[in-house]
Structure formats: structure tokens, C-alpha cells
Amino acid sequence: MLPSMKRISEVVWEIPTSYKEGMRVPARIYATEKLLNQMDAEVINQITNVACLPGIQGYAMAMPDAHWGYGFPIGGVAAMDEEGVISPGGLGYDLNCGVRLIRTNLTETEVRPKVKELLDEFFRIIPTGVGCKGTVHLSVPQFKEVMVAGAKWCEENGFGWAKDSDKIEDYGQIQGADPERVSNRSISRGIDQLGTLGSGNHYCEIQTVSKIFDANLAKAFGIDQVGQICVMVHCGSRGFGHQVATDYLRIFEGIMPRYGIKVRDPQLACAPFKSREGEDYFKGMACAANNAFANRQLITHRIREAFSRVFKRSAEEMGIQIVYDVAHNIGKIEHHELDGLKGDFLVHRKGSTRCFAPGRSELPHLFKQTGQPVNVGGSMETGSYLCVGLEGAMRQTFGSTMHGSGRTMSRAAAKRQVWGEELQKRMAQQGILVKAASMSGLAEEAGVAYKDLTEVVDTMEIAGVSKKLVELRPIGNIKG
Amino acid sequence: MAEQSKQFEILDLIPGEAAFRAYGSTLSELFSNAASALFSVMVELSSVEDKVERIVDLDDPDQESLLIDFLSELVYLKDAEAMLFARFEVAVERKEEESRLHASIWGEPINRGKHRLGVDVKGVTLHRYEFKQLPVGYSAQVILDV
To answer: pTM for the complete prediction?
Structure first.
């Protein structure tokens, strides 16, 4: 049962602070009427719990792809002032889970006959699935260098090109990382996993450009024509980031009474951002985020190798360049001015992507005039989008938008409806080849388990927060 | 001979996540069945041979937290050693001040060609966690982050 909401605009719905005791700010949900009706009731419960957290400013916001998460909903945005808290549940446990889009000069006509060969090669050189180990073996001091340098470590160690990091959020290296703030346990869990895809909804997908909505901006991002081949990578910081989040969640559970903090859900455990524990977590989070940037960079290197081997041409010749790489589970300190608020905020984005409008100083120099590219991954059956941040994001959402399509069905329910082998066959008939480490895992990711992505990206376009530039359709996918 | 009771069942609780309820006539059996349930999400247990043994020793003031600690330790070992486990012998002792666990677990290194894999478990959560003492035995409901 949805609470009574005030309709702020066509796609913005507000739940007032009177809805729940302790709400410090209203909650706002971005959705079309159709998506609002599909939204699970837990999103309402969770986003209004988030609205109770100390220091939250403006609104607790749920993006149109929002669905149930631990403590915070996935698709949640919360900005805290300097007296506020930091919450691992609000940044996601897979820290810097994100999406990288890579472009090529190749066309669908050239690549279609080679998709199977490419997927076999991806599958061979990108470790995929439960507990997979990477192919780069690091000492503990080297792993700590990765935590500090992020994607730049890869560039400096032969796993990337000189200007790759110009096309990554924060240049692939978040400042403030301190390897002494992560446990030995997280190090031993993650040290062998660099360059691995993992499992669940993580994938590496060959896509073809199916529609271009804004030719000039698309061109500025390296997308020139319909039928151009791109590759999308969705993964994060693997066991390492998860352990960092778990460790601090445990610490925060223990110290909340000392700081007089009460939360409505144990998975909202948090600490004052300006406490020692809060600062330590932020430094540890930065380590995990940099690890994830390096992870996607190493996978990019393997993708270039795979294309070179299959097409017997150099990756440079095929123009295999990063379009952009976004984090969608992360916390950032950012300056914002909206609705009478002005200052530096700790913005929690969990299953939400930063989408800055043109002109923001944080944007890599290539994107200062255009606004930030936003990679939005859909289900492996339906397709994805490349969007761009608009001015409305700065006025409404602390510069944030959706991250994907959002699940509507549990894994068990999807598996009851869909057989992995049948799905694989059906997708092949639709022209999408899939290679999966797990057939049951494949069934769990069927398109039917997700919301309509077009409806999701259109919502944020109607809101004036981000707009569609390019639609991408899958033709081949590897997943864990 | 009495019919063997159910060891665990996979539950359908939340979009995007995996969950199970495990049973045991004793605490030790509950812990062992919960471990099987955890790995059954990641792999078809019959495809894992018991080639390598690992020992796990843990203690915690309460048995409810001890189960979460144990399952979290198994997730950690899965990643740190890149191994899957499918046989568990667990002894849980309750003393006045604490619950103590000693487990022998058997499995083998992950082999994508051999093991029929499911979905990776990244963490064990406290969300809607239920630990119950039944008229006979115990049950526990756990949601896994996948």
C-alpha cells in the first residue's frame, strides 16, 4: 500500500516528513505512474528510513530503478552535511560497482560472424563466476599500490593506454585512499581477484549501437553511427570491497550507542562522518573504489587482447577506446547548491550514478563542456543506454540519476519461470549469444526479472536530470 | 527408522538476493546444514569432491551470532583460498559465557570445468535473520548477498 504522496511534477513524488516519526527531510521518488505502481513497498519503507538519518539534507531520493536493498534501497541517493553520518549500507557493499562503456571502429556486420569466437576468448582470459581468481598475481605491497593508484596502476604496469584514465570518473583514482584502514582479511580475500568479473548480475557484453538520439554529443563521446560495436563491462571491487564494507558495518553497529545514533534497520548502521571511525571507513572505501577502477581497467586490457587475437589487428587500429567509466555504489564529498542549500555534502549513491551537468570542475577535462556521460546497463536481453547529465541534476538530485533497470523478480522466481538452457537458446534466436559460468545464474538474470529500462531512462529525461544519447543492443554476453 | 527430516530449503524472499532456511535436531546439525545451504547456492554440492580439509574454530558470546560468524568465515575461505566446500562436520558447544564452534570442512579448489556453479555469495546478512529454537531442534533463516 503506497502512502499518500504529493505530486511535485510529472515524475517526481514526495512523501512528507509526517509519514514516519523521525523523518528529518521528505522523501522523493522519481517514477512514471507505471513505475511507481510497480515499485515494491519496501522502497517506500527504506527511503523513509533513510530520511531519518542524522545530517541528511534536502530529500532522501529514490531513482526510478529503485528496488529493495540492505538498509538503503538500491537506486537511493542521500546527501549529508558535515554534521551527518556515513553509512556502508548507503554506498552499497560492492563498493564502486560500476559500468564501463568501450567503443570500437568495428561494425556489426564485421563482428556478427565472430561473436562466438570473441566470447570464447573473453571467457578464456576474463575469469568469471563463483570465487574466480585473477591472472595477475600481486604481492601485498603491490595490492596496496593498486588501492591508492586505481586505474593509473594498470596504466603504469602495462594494462592500459596512456590516456585511458582521462575517461574514468575521478580519473580512476579517488583521493584519500589509505591501505592501513582496510583489514588483512579484506586483503587476503581480494588479492587474487584483480581482473575478474565475478558473478550475479555482472557481465561483459558486446553491443551494437541501435539508435542515436543526439548525434553531436554521441560523436563527442566516440559514438559515430548505428551498427557501431561497443563493449559494456559491469562489475565492482569483488570480495575485497565487500569485506571492507562488512568490516565497517560491524564496527559501526558496535559504536552507534556511543555516538547516540539510533537507526530503524541494523543494515543502516552508520557513524558520524567526522568521527575517527567514519573517516577510516571513507579512506577504506576509497581503497575499494580504486581497486574496482583497476579491476575494470584490467578487464578492458583483456578485451583489447581478445579483439586483437580474433581480428588479427591491433586494438589501436580498431579504435578500442573507453567512452566512460562510472561508479554506481559510492560516497563522494561534493559541493552543491539546491533548494536554498549550499555547501559541501557527503553524497551517498547506492545503485545511482553521478550525472553532472556541463561545467562542473570534477569532470575529466574531456567532458567539462558536454556534461558527464552516464552508462546505464540493462538486462542482458533488452539493451542499455548511454545518457548524459543535465542541469536539472544539479538543481534536484545532488547530481545523481539511475544506474540500471532494477529487478522486479526474485532470483528463485526467475529460475522457476525460466530455464538457463532454454533462455540461452531463445536469446540465440534473437541474435544474442551468451556464455555463462552458471546456467542457473543465467536464468536468474532473464529480462523478465527486470523493469523496462526505457521507461526508467525516460523518467529521468522527463525530470530534466539526464537524457538519452545512444541506445545499445546486446549481441554477445559473458557472465558469471 | 524415522524419516530423515529436511536439512534446508531455498527461500524466495527478496528480489535480487538468495535466502535459505536450515534445520537441525541439534545446534551442530543446524550449523552443518546451514553451511550446505550456503554452498548449494554457489554450486551443485554433488559436483564437489571432499579432497581438502580445513579446520574452523570460532567462538562468540551468543549462538545466533556464531552462526553468522561461521557462514561469513566460509564465504571468506571460498574467496581467500578459491575453494568450494560440500561436507561439514560441526561441533557446537554451549558454555555459560560463550558458544564455541569446531568444524572440519571438506572441499576442493574451484574448477569451472568440473563444478556445476550457481551464483557467488558475497556476504551473509542480518536482514530478516531468524534463529529459532523449535519444540525439537532448531531452524535459521538467512539472506545472502549475491
So the answer is: 0.95
